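Course assignment 3, question 2. Fill in each field.
Student: A.L.
Task: Predict the tertiary structure for the chain below.
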Amino acid sequence: MFPTHRLTKLLNTIVLRSHQNPTQNSDTSTGNMASSIEHRTINVNGINMHVAIKGPENAPVILFIHGFPQLWYSWRHQIEALSSLGYRAVAPDLRGYGDTDAPAEVTSYTVLHVVGDLIGLLDVLAPKKESVFVVGHDWGSLIAWHLSLFRPDRVKALVTLSVVFNPRNPSRKIISTLKAVYGDDYYIIRFQEPGEIEAEFAEMGAERVLREFLSYRTPAPLFLPKGQGFNGKSLDTPVVLPTWLSEEDVKYYTSKFEQKGFTGGLNYYRNLDRNWELTAPWTGAQVKSPG
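Answer field:
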């Protein structure tokens, strides 16, 4: 077994290398992935959660948490790489995504709900209440930070990508602050009204939306002006996929989001101010989990 600091460095290396050259760690075929990774549905926190698992049952657990608009599938290469080293890789579809239940109420997508789901999952897959290694990306990073904040006893080490820890500011609500800085067309502001952006995404088509999000690499704020494409570009502009994202990958994501829709994932954004209210008891608290 690796010491915590050595595994943390290893996770960082594998996560970065897998994104740069995913074929070095595993077969990119969806069919081969499905045959080599176990898929289970587990009842947690009042919902049925789909989870992808690979590795020995008694091995140390690594929990992978995806972002928006992603799925367990986003971690397929890391699952293969880490399980081959003797770890048990666990990657759920978060609530509202993929093959996991999607509660209808917007208020059912707070960080307390999602962290509660993950604790329920760990209670099944790491039943001795042992701590686990946690890796998050995008919204998965935000959830990972809160998992570490709320339940440091369950987190052995933490690796996050894209989203840093932002301590709660008791004098500033999140949505009003973002609107003041970026304006009404900023993507998070556009996501706030239930049904509105879903209708626009439906006009674009799920595949187009996913191509835009999954290939977006512009180091600048994202704007979604009404009736236009990402950052105001024409909807006829071709989306060129990066080398690490295949047409087969896009088809897999598209099949799941056409089935489930985007509402579940969007509801995470619609709870940003509610999260701010609910996390008041943790104002000034520090994340203690090692990274």
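Instructor remarks: The two ends are 17 Å apart (CA to CA). The chain has a mean pLDDT of 90.
Grade: pending
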